Amino acid sequence: MKRLLAITLALVMVFALVAACGDADVPAVTEPTPPPTVVETPEPEEEAPAPEETPAPAEVADVPELRIALIAHSPESILDDGSFNAGAWDGINQFIAEHGIPEANIDFFQPHDGTDDARIDLIENAIEDFGADVLVLPGFHFVNSLYRAQDYFPDTKFIFLDAVPAPEGGGDARTADNLVSILYAEHQSGFLAGYAAVMDGYRELGFIGGAAVPAVVRYGHGFLQGAERAAQELGLEEGEVNVRYTYVGGFAPDPAWETLASSWYAAGTEVIFVAAGGVLFSVIPAAEASDGLIIGVDVDQSGLSPDTIITSAMKELAVSVVDMLNAILDGTFPGGNVITYDASVYGVGLPMASSRFNNFTQAEYDALFAAVAAGGINISASLDMSDIELALVTVDEQ
Q1: At the N or C end, where does the chain have fewer CB atoms within 10 A?
Q2: What are the residue ranges spanned by the domains of the chain?
Q3: Neighbours of 351 (CB within 10 A)
């Protein structure tokens, strides 16, 4: 009996052990594969586009290496002149901003005096010391010095604004292959200003020009023709529009020009067109003290005296400078040529957005500008006053 019980217990233990071993083998065979979260890890794939979003090395490599200098014609010709230099400098800054060129690649140079030799020395300094590849030179003062400099420095590009190089003492003007001369249709811009002034209701006008050089003369003659055209369209009588007219012989501020402007305002002049660079800074206080008005020149000068400057006879200096710098980059620099920016290419005009007219409207301006641009209005560019046909406007030359 005891032996039977022992055998029975032994058999039970064997079966239990077998069952236990059988259960232990099941997980090893039927264990599922690791869960998907362990295998499906998309994070690295989401970070993959990062290299495509950082093309900085290629962009840096494409930045042009140009170094550009703006050259003043005299010690009095400051950078922030609110006129010619400022307009050209704006163009240079627009260009470097568009192409990612560092500001260290541009600079402004003033000569120690206003002679041609001093200007050539300054050009040489800008090239040799600053490393300028391109020189922008605003104003007729460079006519003689650039005639020589364009040959002295054949590997440098020159952008000459407002005149064409010519030999001292007279002779044929000439542009070398490394120089482009940019001219502007000042007679068109002056015409727009004179027309607008009379259409706006002004009858007593003034014109103060700097030196009687072609660009300034064209401004003045265009101004007279614009006033005449408006007087005709309004059906005014002869002598209803009067213009005091003078050239002061310079472009720098002087107390004498403030006295002159004050006397004109006191005599009844309502608005003076000042085409004389820094002379404007002498006319502004006269206008402010007399409740007089001013028409600016070259660029939008409204910010210089918002209470007195009603508009400006502009030429697109910045646009022309940007155009020529881009031409240097793309290999189409028109060296050896003289190019004129006129109304047909929006090279001149009035800044209507900042102008302060009472009666002259944007629609009237647009129609007038379109006619000028299309050549539908004959505006003489003659430098001879006798060629300017005036039937209604009287001119008091002083």
Answers
A1: N
A2: 2-44, 65-186, 187-316+349-397
A3: 15
* CA distances, 149 to each of 118, 137, 167, 221, 323 (Å): 12, 12, 11, 32, 22
Judge whether 65-186 and 187-316+349-397 match in fold: yes
Q: What is the pLDDT of residues 102-144, one digit of tens each?
A: 999 999 999 999 999 999 999 999 999 999 999 999 999 999 9
Question: Which is nearest to 322 in space by CA: 95, 69, 20, 153?
Answer: 95
Distance, C-alpha 58 to centroid of its chain: 28
Tens-digit pLDDT profile for residues 39-76: 343 444 444 444 455 444 334 447 888 999 999 999 98
Average pLDDT over residues 1-29: 36
Rounded mean pLDDT, 258-273: 98
| pLDDT in the model for residue 334 | 98
Which residues pair with residue 241 across a beta bridge?
393
What is the chain's Cα-based Rg?
38
Beta bridge partners of 293: 271
pTM of the complete model: 0.82
Q: Which of 21-30, 68-77, 153-162 has the lowest mean pLDDT?
A: 21-30
In the numeric block, which tokens belong to residue 282? Answer: 């002498």
Quickly list H helices, the chain.
2-30, 36-39, 43-47, 56-62, 84-99, 116-128, 143-152, 186-199, 214-234, 255-266, 280-290, 317-329, 362-373
pLDDT of residue 21: 36
- In 3D space, the residue among 186, 204, 312, 353 whose CA is nearest the CA of residue 264 turns out to be 204
Encode 98-120: b = buried (16+ Cβ within 10 Å), e = exposed: eeebeeebbbbbbbeeeebebbb
Q: Is 15 helix (H, G, I), strand (E, B) or coil?
A: helix
Handedness of CA 146, 150, 155, 160 (dihedral sign): positive
The answer to whether residues 323 and 96 touch, using CB atoms and an 8 Å cutoff, is no
Q: Under the phi-then-psi rule, with left for phi > 0, alpha for psi from -120 to 50, and beta for the rest, what region is 369?
A: alpha
The CATH superfamily holding the domain 65-186 is Response regulator (3.40.50.2300)
CATH architecture, domain defined by 187-316+349-397: 3-Layer(aba) Sandwich (3.40)
